[in-house]
Every structure is written in structure tokens, then in C-alpha cells.
UniProtKB/TrEMBL annotation:
<dbReference type="InterPro" id="IPR023347">
    <property type="entry name" value="Lysozyme_dom_sf"/>
</dbReference>
<keyword id="KW-0929">Antimicrobial</keyword>
<dbReference type="InterPro" id="IPR023346">
    <property type="entry name" value="Lysozyme-like_dom_sf"/>
</dbReference>
<dbReference type="GO" id="GO:0042742">
    <property type="term" value="P:defense response to bacterium"/>
</dbReference>
<dbReference type="GO" id="GO:0009253">
    <property type="term" value="P:peptidoglycan catabolic process"/>
</dbReference>
<dbReference type="GO" id="GO:0031640">
    <property type="term" value="P:killing of cells of another organism"/>
</dbReference>
<keyword id="KW-0081">Bacteriolytic enzyme</keyword>
<dbReference type="InterPro" id="IPR002196">
    <property type="entry name" value="Glyco_hydro_24"/>
</dbReference>
<dbReference type="Pfam" id="PF00959">
    <property type="entry name" value="Phage_lysozyme"/>
</dbReference>
<dbReference type="GO" id="GO:0003796">
    <property type="term" value="F:lysozyme activity"/>
</dbReference>
<dbReference type="GO" id="GO:0016998">
    <property type="term" value="P:cell wall macromolecule catabolic process"/>
</dbReference>
<protein>
    <submittedName>
        <fullName>17391_t:CDS:1</fullName>
    </submittedName>
</protein>
Amino acid sequence: MEPMSLKVSLNNFKNKLSEFEGYVKKYVKKSLNSDQFDALVSFAYNTGEGAIKSVANIINSKGFSEVRSEMAKYNKVTIEENGKERKVVSPVLANRRKFEADMFDSKIKSCPKVSQNCNGGCKK
């Protein structure tokens, strides 16, 4: 995987945004505020349909209190050592999940290292 610039990353996100918004709308049956919706769309974009479905099941059955711990489960990468694969915690993914959970809990007031013109996201 090659690193990508912020501009390329935002363009990729914009191009696929409706797909991931659709997953959140399809699976989450409870009302969400804009921070919660945005956080779940970001989470879905970064983890895929299966992960957002899992988080949505938690929301639908248990409410919002366990969203942070469910999101945190998606913090691992697969590495190969001695011909065997194993999952290890990625500090980068752990930080991303924390950011998304903080956004879900309305604790984020601005996007770190992103101009205030980040497609309307992350601004209060």
C-alpha cells in the first residue's frame, strides 16, 4: 500500500461517500445526530460493510454506550512471521478508531492537521 496525499484521500472519500452513507442508513435503525452519522460513515469507509453492520447491531440492540468498545475492536493488522499470519494492534488504527469514537461522542471540535475547508466535515 502506497501512502497517499490528503488531497487524493479526500477525493477518494468524496467519490465513495454515498456508498458508505448508504451502509449507515441501511443498518442503523436508531436516530443519529450529525456527529454520530459522520463518525459511522468514516468508520464504514475505513473498515468496510461488515464492520459497520457489527457496530449497527450494537447500536440497535444496546444503544450508544458500547459503540466505543465495538469500534476499538477494529484496530489490528495482519502480519506474517515465520510463515504464519497473526493479528497485532496497530497504533495508527487504534488512534483512528479513538478519533471516530470521539467524533461519535461529539468530542471532536476540528479535524487535526486538516484545513477548516475539509468538505464541511469536522467543523463545529
